[in-house]
């Protein structure tokens, strides 16, 4: 492909058309009142949308921009800057494996290999049943209890390759 | 002033500058990427590192970013320190790590700042041999290519596009080594100044798409100092030519006008000159059709026609040079010379000139607009009629950030701090118009009203400022209060601006603007007064005091005159079709033009005129500044059968044929000097640029770079014998790389290149537009050889302030026959640029805009089709609802396909019939 070709996005999974939930709209409008400049509320707005939908689609970017009165470029600039704002669909549960230096010393590599083998996906991937997405994450501040991972909002310490099957069973 | 020490030498510099700016101004080279003279410093690239020492005895020193360090007295730095040199080379190597090795196929190559800096830093061997990060590119519309892999993440594009130019459809996405500069989704870049990205970006990410089609390297093009013909501001441009075609337009620095930036109409509107359907030889009508003819036959025919005619009228043009209009005036006689504006514009132009020339406040310059700290924009939609002025006004608005910086004791170049402090706060700008304008987003207040009501507001503002100015009776309380707010705000400013123009089609608006400017002046304010004119040379033509066009049309229609010579004008744009046809049906018509227009089709004889790129001329911009444009290339060199030449030269030939004096080889200087001698208002034009005999160190100035290649072969299709290069008797420029090509130095007048003779930006080691640094007295200042152009008159400060006293009656809303206003369009309203393919593709479809109330009364919804009757013709147009339009007014886009040209501001009425 010539590098001058216009963008062709990979086929994304089919999702229902995005509608900004009235509660979310109200929450974003409220966030806007807390700051001098609406641009400052973008990050909170993105978190609000992601909390409900799991990720932030293009239509959500535009919707947030409209509610806040900022440009879509502003919203997407923030959304794409932060690696935990997802601009592509993710599974029902997101597994984040710490890949910083402390966990490297306590067994990160074997842990990652075990996750990849068990789930059959690599970083950035989502299982076909849409249950798990696997991502790396920076130091979670618990280096003394590594390897550390997060699944959704739960932090798990001293996770060894052997424990992962049982652990994952807790996340339907 | 401050004294700094650079590599053991002492220099005097401006202490408020940063070290990079100061050193570049001294002529010293420090490589840089993210800093730009118009954008300030952010410290993003680390390329500008130098070694700074505590004092004269410190030998260790530390690396600092020169763009982020003040040039205060007692600063000791070294540019050549080995550690600094090595650091800079490593920065370049890091930046190049992800940069593709695609210079040979990159359209930036040969005028690339990244190439220049890579050579300057001495980085010549890339050790990184792993996979480079790659990006997908976006289709950004007809003007700009996107190749993101070449990005070095200097952030200049983002800072220019969003902060400087106010674009909203652009941003930076991603993080760390994966940042992306572009639109949120692919699509046309909407900002009117997007073309500047091609010069602001130091690499080949953003390049000129209109140039891609027939690409050629910078060093292989021929250039001349030229002037943009697409509005009245007269921005300076550097057109590049190859094989007889204009290939692209780049900015030509003029520190008083456009400095580093152009608008997209000016940059991408050149395609009209390359059109295949242009007349390039003479034509004579035969059996009702125009047939090609030799120049000799055409002249013979014309000589007979002119000698035999009892009464010949000449119709000039605001898009033709002073010389061409003057030569026509000489040929037909002053009493038979008619204005090429419409009659409405004739009145407006005369009014605007009288205000600037005879009033106590002359025009300010485009550059000076930027230092205003409050503005009233009265009735003129500058973004559409004089686009570059809207960019300057935005800088005036952003000037608030400078005040905030100063309060924090920060430097004016600290761009990051400026953005943080200023956020969405701007200096006050008040915008009045009949419709929504693109300045509205930064306006403190907008007023949408009919022109009379805008004029009444303006007059009331003037009265609040100076009670000696007439009061306006019968204003409602809200308008009174608004007028008072505006007046107080302008009075509180250090440098208030009053911006208006002929674009609203109302002499009353011009008078109101004058009253405001004069009132501020009377109150002791230094007011910046700026009026936009209809076209590139409207001011010049207006100064000729020609009679109104309508009189010529009448004389032709009633048989009082039998022959009309029309120069570079399409009369159907100037008067209603029926009236033009009535005149042309009777007349024997001679047309000199470079475009095929409805007028040329009525011609008995058509002579092919040169475009601005193919000839010499002088035009007068909206401030009354006469500027010379020079011929870029000689058409006949490539195509000996082409007969195009300047209109003034054709007219001089005809004059000599009529007189039979055999003197038909006039030079530019002859015609220009004759114009200056006959019409004293033009005395100064001969100083707009050096005359043909001028030499620098005994040389003419070169039109092509040293490396220009292929000249010996480019005519081989015609003959293998290479002719002598074209000779130029009209200017001190040579059609050649042989000639003076230097930048001049500070203190030696001998090698000083006048600013008006700089064809393109190049200096040894500096191939990109950043080379302008080498021509300036200080970086971002004025050209060392003088900013081009000369004012035809100076401020008439002795003039007493005699306010206009006519107070227009308030507009009466009548929704059954609403008034039609022509909505000016940056793409479409101006004839020549709208004949360039890329610009044509940006012209809006026809529509009729009205507010929701009117639409509701007519039971119309958005997109509904409605039959609109304007000046006798019925148009079926889709509805656009815009609540910015006041009651009783509907708008149609000027220049959109199918929309008749309504004399701007004409009070046409319309009937909205049943939906068609
Ligand atoms: S696209 Fe060009 S201007 Fe923008 S950051 Fe990249 S290199 Fe700099
Ligand atoms: S503002 Fe006017 S003169 Fe300047 S580039 Fe644009 S069209 Fe040309
Ligand atoms: S390195 Fe893994 S938690 Fe700190
Ligand atoms: S120019 Fe100084 S850091 Fe980029």
Helix amount of chain B: 25-40%
Return the structural class of chain A: alpha+beta
Compounds present?
iron/sulfur cluster, FE2/S2 (inorganic) cluster
- Give the H and E element order of chain A: HHHHEHHEEEH
Question: Could you give a short account of the major beta sheet of chain A?
Answer: 4 strands, mixed
Under CATH at level 1, the class of the largest domain in chain A stands as Alpha Beta
Most extensive chain interface and residues per partner = A-B, 20 and 24 residues
The mean pLDDT of chain B is: 94
Could you please describe the fold and organization of this structure?
The complex is a heterodimer of chains A (172) and B (916). Chain A has 172 residues and is α+β, with helices and mostly antiparallel strands. Chain A folds into 2 domains: 66 residues, Orthogonal Bundle (Arc Repressor Mutant, subunit A), CATH 1.10.10; 77 residues, Glutaredoxin (3-Layer(aba) Sandwich). Helices cover 40% and strands 10% of the residues of chain A. Chain A has 7 helices and 4 strands, in the order ααααβααβββα. In chain A, α3 packs across α4. The longest helix of chain A is centred in the first third of the chain and has 12 residues. Chain A starts with 21 loop residues before the first helix and ends with a helix. The N terminus of chain A is likely disordered. By secondary structure, chain B is of the alpha/beta class. In chain B, 27% of the residues lie in helices and 17% in strands. Chain B contains 26 helices and 35 strands. In chain B, the strands form 10 sheets. Chain B has a 7-stranded mixed β-sheet with strand order 15-14-25-24-23-16-17, sandwiched between helices. In chain B, strands 2-1-5-3-4 form a 5-stranded mixed β-sheet, sandwiched between helices. In chain B, a hairpin with a 2-residue loop joins β14 and β15. In chain B, α19 packs across α20. The model of chain B has no long low-confidence stretch (mean pLDDT 94). The chains are: A alpha+beta (172), B alpha/beta (916). The complex binds iron/sulfur cluster (2 copies) and FE2/S2 (inorganic) cluster (2 copies). The site of one FE2/S2 (inorganic) cluster has 12 residues of chain A, from α5.
């Amino acid at each position: 492909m010539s590098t001058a070709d216009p963008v062709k996005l990979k086929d994304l999974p089919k999702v229902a058309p995005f509608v900004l939930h009235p509660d979310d709209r109200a929450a974003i409008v409220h966030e806007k009142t807390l700051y001098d400049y609406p641009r400052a509320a973008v990050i909170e707005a993105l978190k609000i949308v992601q909390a409900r939908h799991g990720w932030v689609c293009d239509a959500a970017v535009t919707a947030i921009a409209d509610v806040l009165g900022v440009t879509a470029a502003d919203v997407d600039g923030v959304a794409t800057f932060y690696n935990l704002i997802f601009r592509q669909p993710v599974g029902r549960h997101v597994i984040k494996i710490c890949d910083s230096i402390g966990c490297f010393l306590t067994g990160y590599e074997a842990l990652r290999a075990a996750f990849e083998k068990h789930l059959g996906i690599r970083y950035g991937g989502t299982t076909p049943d849409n249950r798990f997405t696997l991502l790396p994450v920076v130091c979670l501040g618990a280096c003394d209890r590594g390897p550390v991972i997060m699944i959704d909002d739960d932090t798990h310490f001293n996770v060894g390759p052997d424990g992962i099957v049982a652990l994952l069973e807790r996340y339907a | 002033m401050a004294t700094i020490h650079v590599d053991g030498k002492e220099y005097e510099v401006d202490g408020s500058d940063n070290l990079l700016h100061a050193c570049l101004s001294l002529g010293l080279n420090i490589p840089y990427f993210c800093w730009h003279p118009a954008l300030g410093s952010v410290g993003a690239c680390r390329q500008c590192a130098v070694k700074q020492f505590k004092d004269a005895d410190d030998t260790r020193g530390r690396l600092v970013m020169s763009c982020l360090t003040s040039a205060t007295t007692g600063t000791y730095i070294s540019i050549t320190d080995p550690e600094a040199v090595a650091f800079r080379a490593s920065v370049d190597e890091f930046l190049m790590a992800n940069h593709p090795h695609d210079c040979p196929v990159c359209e930036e190559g040969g005028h690339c700042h990244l190439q220049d800096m890579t050579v300057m830093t001495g980085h010549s061997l890339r050790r990184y041999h792993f996979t480079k990060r790659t990006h997908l590119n976006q289709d950004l519309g007809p003007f700009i290519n996107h190749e993101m892999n070449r990005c070095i993440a200097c952030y200049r594009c983002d800072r220019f596009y969003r902060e400087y130019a106010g674009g909203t459809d652009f941003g930076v996405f991603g993080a760390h080594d994966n940042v992306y500069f572009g639109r949120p989704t692919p699509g046309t870049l909407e900002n009117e100044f997007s073309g500047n990205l091609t010069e602001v970006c130091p690499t080949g990410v953003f390049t000129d798409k209109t140039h891609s089609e027939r690409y050629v390297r910078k060093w292989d093009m021929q250039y001349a100092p030229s002037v943009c013909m697409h509005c009245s501001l007269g921005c300076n441009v550097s057109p590049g030519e190859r094989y007889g075609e204009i290939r692209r337009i780049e900015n030509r620095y003029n520190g008083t006008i456009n400095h580093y930036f152009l608008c997209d109409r000016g940059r991408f509107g050149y395609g009209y000159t390359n059109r295949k359907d242009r007349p390039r030889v003479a034509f004579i009508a035969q059996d009702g059709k125009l047939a090609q003819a030799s120049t000799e036959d055409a002249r013979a025919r014309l000589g007979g026609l002119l000698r035999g005619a009892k009464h010949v009228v000449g119709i000039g043009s605001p898009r033709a040079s002073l010389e061409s209009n003057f030569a026509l005036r000489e040929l037909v006689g002053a009493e038979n010379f008619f204005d090429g504006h419409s009659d409405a514009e004739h009145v407006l132009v005369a009014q605007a000139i009288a205000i600037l020339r005879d009033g106590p406040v002359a025009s300010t310059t485009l550059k000076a607009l930027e230092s205003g700290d409050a503005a009233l924009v009265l009735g003129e939609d500058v973004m559409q009629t004089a686009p570059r002025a809207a960019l300057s006004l935005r800088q005036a608005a952003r000037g608030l950030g400078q005040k905030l910086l100063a309060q924090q004791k920060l430097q004016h170049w600290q761009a990051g701090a400026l953005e943080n402090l200023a956020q969405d706060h701007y200096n006050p700008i008040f915008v009045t118009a009949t419709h929504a304008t693109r300045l509205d987003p930064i306006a403190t207040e907008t007023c949408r009203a009919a022109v009379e009501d805008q004029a009444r507001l303006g007059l009331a503002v003037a009265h609040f400022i100076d009670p000696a100015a007439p009061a306006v009776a019968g204003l409602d309380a809200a308008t009174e209060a608004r007028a008072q707010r505006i007046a107080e705000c302008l009075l509180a400013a250090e440098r208030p601006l009053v911006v208006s123009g002929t674009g609203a089609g109302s002499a009353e608006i011009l008078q109101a603007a004058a009253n405001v400017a004069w009132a501020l002046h009377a109150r002791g304010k230094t007011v910046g007064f700026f009026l936009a004119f209809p076209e590139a040379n409207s001011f010049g033509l207006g100064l000729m005091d020609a009679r109104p066009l309508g009189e010529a049309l009448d004389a032709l229609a009633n048989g009082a005159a039998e022959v009309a010579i029309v120069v570079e004008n399409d009369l159907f744009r100037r008067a209603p079709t029926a009236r033009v046809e009535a005149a042309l049906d009777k007349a024997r018509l001679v047309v000199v033009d470079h475009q095929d227009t409805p007028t040329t089709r009525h011609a008995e004889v058509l002579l092919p005129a040169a475009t601005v790129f193919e000839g010499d001329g002088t035009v007068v911009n909206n401030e009354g500044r006469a500027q010379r444009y020079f011929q870029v290339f000689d058409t006949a060199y490539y195509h000996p059968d082409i007969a195009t030449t300047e209109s003034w030269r054709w007219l001089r030939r005809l004059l000599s044929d009529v007189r039979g004096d055999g003197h038909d080889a006039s030079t530019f200087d002859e015609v220009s000097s004759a114009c200056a001698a006959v019409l004293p208002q033009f005395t100064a034009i001969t100083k707009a640029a050096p005359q043909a005999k001028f030499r620098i160190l005994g040389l003419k100035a070169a039109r092509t770079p040293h490396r220009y290649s292929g000249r010996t072969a480019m005519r081989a299709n015609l003959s293998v014998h290479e002719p002598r290069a074209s000779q130029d008797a009209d200017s001190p420029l040579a059609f050649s790389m042989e000639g003076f090509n230097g930048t001049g130095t500070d203190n030696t007048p001998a090698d000083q290149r006048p600013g008006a003779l700089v064809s393109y930006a190049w200096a040894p080691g500096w191939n990109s537009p950043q080379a302008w640094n080498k021509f300036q007295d200080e970086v971002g200042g004025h050209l060392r050889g003088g900013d081009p152009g000369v004012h035809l008159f100076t401020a008439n400060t002795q003039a007493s302030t005699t306010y206009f006293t006519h107070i227009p009656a308030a507009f009466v809303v009548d929704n059954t026959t609403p008034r039609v206003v022509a909505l000016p369009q940056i793409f479409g309203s101006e004839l020549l640029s709208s004949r360039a393919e890329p610009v044509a593709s940006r012209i809006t479809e026809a529509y009729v805009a009205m507010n929701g109330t009117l639409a509701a009364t007519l039971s119309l919804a958005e997109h509904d089709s409605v039959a609109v009757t304007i000046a006798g013709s019925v148009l079926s147009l889709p509805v656009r609802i815009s609540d910015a339009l006041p009651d009783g007014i509907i708008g149609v886009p000027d220049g959109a396909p199918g929309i008749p040209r309504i004399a701007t501001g004409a009070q046409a009425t319309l009937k909205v019939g049943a939906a068609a």
